[in-house]
Amino acid sequence: MKLGSLKSSSKDGRLVVVSKDNKKMVPATDVAENLRTALENWSETRPALMSLYEQLNQEQISGEEIKPENFHSPLPRSFQWIDGSAFIQHIKLVRKSRNAPIPETLHTIPLVYQGSGDSFLAPTEDIPQSDPKHGTDFEGEIGVIVNDVPMGVSPEKALDHIILFVLINDVSLRGLAAPELKRGFGFVQSKPSSSFAPFAVTKEELGGNWKGGRVHLPLLVDFNGVSFGKAGGGAMHFHFGELISHAAKTRRLTAGTIIGSGTVSEEGKGFSCLVEKRTVETIQTGEAKQPFMKPGDQITIRMLDQNGENIFGTISQKVMKAPI
Length: 324
Fold this sequence. Notes:
Layout: E1 2-6, E2 14-18, E3 24-27, H1 35-40, H2 42-57, E4 64-65, E5 71-72, E6 81-85, H3 88-97, E7 111-114, E8 127-129, E9 136-137, E10 140-146, H4 155-158, E11 162-169, E12 172-173, H5 174-182, E13 195-196, E14 200-201, E15 210-211, E16 214-215, E17 220-223, E18 226-229, H6 240-247, E19 258-260, H7 274-285, E20 298-302, E21 315-321
Helix pairs in contact: 3-7
């Protein structure tokens, strides 16, 4: 099943069911006004939403044509957005870019931080840049949305709490990250609003590509119209169950919590962010030649299955000078 949120006067958007081929949609507000409400009552709303999905795909209901510009991120806001860093290759490269040591627990304890979930960007919305010195970067990620997760859940049981899957552009300001971390209290200014591909999907849409707590498909990243990366989601060191379990060690997670994989990274498969390429350039030549994003630069992120179907729809964003 595929779900989306249309932009509306509500900060939570308006819930729609999307056809498997991403061409048609049908309003789902008779089931739940928005995706947040649907998630909080998932045992009741899921059957009704699935029924709409099946009717739409079987052309028992006609549906409306999809216009990507009308879609917000599936959850325009969330009570909780927790991002991990589950790809070891990315951790090593980013740490080198900051001349920071590799954690002793690199292979045993996942790295996570709690981001700002109160206001996400839409999948085609411009990324505002207030200062080019901030080092605007994109980060292509895979994410999951969970139902209510009990405190102390095991990694294996945590997988049962995953309801939906999403794609993420975790926008980062590299010039601000290192100074923040040196102060010893984590990210705030260096992590502005993220964006998501327009459609959130259930595991059935991933088929056999969802196994071992990982999505075994390449994340396709284009920068300014040129292929930039195709790293595989299966390269995650920590699987999603381990990330959820880590986040829930001392607290419950409420329905609608989003857990990100961190930047998808696989050696030899290009890059899902600019800082990785800059670090490799520095290692190879002694100098980073790839600039960070400037106004007019465009990032595109998507994931295709083996049949070439665009599972989540497309993140397509340009950087613009912030009107401040």
